[in-house]
Amino acid sequence: MAQSAAGKSNKEQKYDRQLRLWGDHGQEALENAHVCLINATATGTEILKNLVLPGIGAFTIVDGHKVTGEDVGNNFFLSISSIGKNRAQAATELLQELNSDVSGNFVEESPDKLLDNDPEFFHRFSLVIGVQLIESTCLRLAGVLWNAGVPFLVCKTYGLVGYMRLAVKEHTVVESHPDNALEDLRLDQPFAELKNHIQSYDLDNMDKKDHSHTPWIIVVAKYLEKWYNEHNYQLPKNYKEKEAFRQLIREGILKNENGVAEDEENFEEAIKNVNTALNPTKIPSTVQDILNAEGWKNITAQTPAFWVMARAVKEFVENEGEGKLPVRGTIPDMIADSEKFINLQNVYREKAMQDASVVSKHVESLLQSVGKVCVYKSKKKCKNAAFLRVVRCRSLADECSVELVNKDEITSCMDNPDSEMVLYLMLRSVDRFFQQHSRYPGVYNYQVEEDIGKLKLCVNSLLQEYGLNVNVKDDYIHEFCRYGANAIKMITHQFVPFNNTFIYNAMSQTSATFQL
Amino acid sequence: MERSRKCRWTAKANIRRNNCLSLVVARLEVRAYVTLLLLSLCREKKRRRVEELAEKMAVDSGHGGNARDWDGRWNHVQKFLERPGPFTHPDFEPSTESLHFLLETCKILVIGAGGLGCELLKNLALTGFRQIHVIDMDTIDVSNLNRQFLFRSKDVGRPKADVAADFINRRIPGCNVVPYFKKIQDFDESFYRQFHIIVCGLDSIIARRWMNGMLMSLLIYEDGVLDPSSIIPLIDGGTEGFKGNARVILPGMTACIDCTLELYPPQINFPMCTIASMPRLPEHCIEYVRVLQWPKEKPFGEDVPLDGDNPEHIKWVFQKSQERASEFNITGVTYRLTQGVVKRIIPAVASTNAVIAAACATEVFKIASSAYVPLNNYLVFNDVDGLYTYTFEAERKENCTACSQVPQDLKFAPSATLQDILEYLTENASLQMKSPAITATIDGKNRTLYLQTVASIEERTRPNLCKTLKELGLTDGQELAVADVTTPQTMLFKLHFTS
Fold it and tell me: Quick one: a GO cellular component term (chain B) (predicted)?
């Protein structure tokens, strides 16, 4: 790797913009991953492109088809010279060329053949992406991957409709990076060190400069003490009380010799933040669910790291944490002089580090109890204890089974006959059509008229089989016959676990997520 | 420079007096106007087709566009253009001519050949557009390579527009991307007028506003009624990390960039007192070095500005920032953070750009082909948590400074100073000008009251800032002409004296 000024490697420079999103550890995970794409259609290669560019470790394309003229017309990663060649090989060449850090492979075979002869072939991948798979192949593959614990992402594009389905038993997220997370300030239940720090301030006997540059967190804490004295140690709860509390703070603003309030921005900040600062500290329900998860109650030598950590956090919560998660340790920026701010920040930081090391000790003893040694860093996970997420997606088998189909979700969405759900039903019906006629509706102009009727039959048989009492407008049936088997690419891949079906309608530029 | 500041507002004074009529016109349903616009595009298609047929008959057409095509090449597009359907635009007529229009006639301008631009060029070329022009003033940097996939490490240093055009033209036979290694401000109305649709993949709000203003200046009003054939649709895309948006702007008809300025998040600028004497965050320390220490110490010589792309400069700022930080016991200054703050780096990843560019390209296709009703008119996308999109109709602002044709008023006391007006122009939320230049006709002569962008003129006119409007000889009802980077046209304001 070439070095440049300040020791930044070429790779670090190249990936700079994305490292600012997911960090070095995120990049490492990406570089250790091996993804499998089945069918190098325009959609498939587009998805791979968005994985190859940021530096995925390796990819393998599985495709038994030969490249046609139509393929070259809509796929950036196929050229005229590849017409007649195997599509997996042709696409691998032009995708590999995007990033020499990535290792590209291809298998000139249909997925059905592989499932017949060597289903364990798929066990080696971090993720399998299936594009434009026919239903039977899709369900077979889904079964194999589900049992092997390999996440499966199904993608279909049909005309101006895009469909994605994620099937994974359990996907754990350590850093969910929520957009608008509330701060973890503990003002309602200050830990000892915070209490002491707050005590060290005497707002009534400060000079003006110090008074105006005291962090708002301290201001709120001090006035909360006053409030407690007059309100039986109860937090301000409703709007009226919070308003009264804000007024209490407002009265604390220094006045000049004429009795006019001075300009104290830190007090204004305190008043503004009363609403959120006094939220009772509690464990988010998503995290509660994780801590109480049944499946991982007993730690064994095979338990994944995430769940060992979750158990350790739970033990912390039940003991040292006194019902609370480890302190996060960060505070927002606020008007204050440097010293006061840094000192306050350090109080939170040090407490967070303390809590993290307690959790680490729990991790160590848990692992020891099953004869393992701790090799990973738990500090990061502790900082984000409130942001742990688990996503569990239903299997495709369940989605398609008559007994377990999510009738409620489908019927309630179809109360609006133009809901994206109708596009889901159409895609399922189109699969049925293919099963019966070995082709997609409306491939040739002369077929369109007749196929509308045939597709309608498929729609009705689908609805009947699942006992779905919904109405699918004829317009949609007609529209799906227009597309033939073609797609104009419009969906790209995201590594965010949506749960579990995403439909994009490019006609109206709307989308929806369903749990099916 | 003179040409870009030519003021068309005076010529339109007659039309402005009929502005109640244009407001009525503006209130008519947008859909009706979309229809009119698409009809005019259809008329244009037919007109050009007739022209070309006539040309072909006159010239020996031994090899035409179709020699570059192979069997099945445009199947994916033809299904949309040659078959009727229930969701098409009400005026859509399936025909084989539409494909021809796309391939041979429709002229698209792509602004920006970066993250969005590369994706846009690929999408448009694969859809069949062949007359594509692309403007980009930048050269390729290593940090572009993680998403701007038309570039390789051997291309670092070369103009983005040139390399992008080359790649597309080679990969998509028949496509003719024409590159311009220039700024958008280097072109005038006659250039922009030639395009059917303009798509932006810019990284600057100022540039967007300029482009927006340019398309407004192309609009032709006859007796207060907008001529739809003078409308050039603007598709605008923007991304930041995992978030993005795509919008369709029909100048003069739908909400424009300036109508929705408040939608753009404010730029983070730390207060000077924090930076100068009360830093708390590592960012404050870096800003201190950038804004105060560098100009004072001039570490690389007199008149050498801080260059975020120069690793030696960044190294210097990094070291000094660390020193400042340790003075205040602040931790967290890293090389990466230093560079991020100095260059105002926005994180970026391939997938967000791909999604937004796809949405934009879909709209270009819809408008060019009239195959579907276009997006009306704003799409927001976010994939931080799951996948989220939200589509809504952004509304026009009644007194929008860019597109409403409503004359803008300035209300000041005669004792107010020119500085007060300058501050208003830059700080007002709907104007947000950057470095406005103010001229006025006083005693029959055109006078520059203040201009920042040319050092000698700035020095000469600086004393005017402290003078009152009365002292400057301005009168009640007077018109002031204001030029700024945010608009290609000079804006006229009417000065009203308050008591």
Answer: cytoplasm
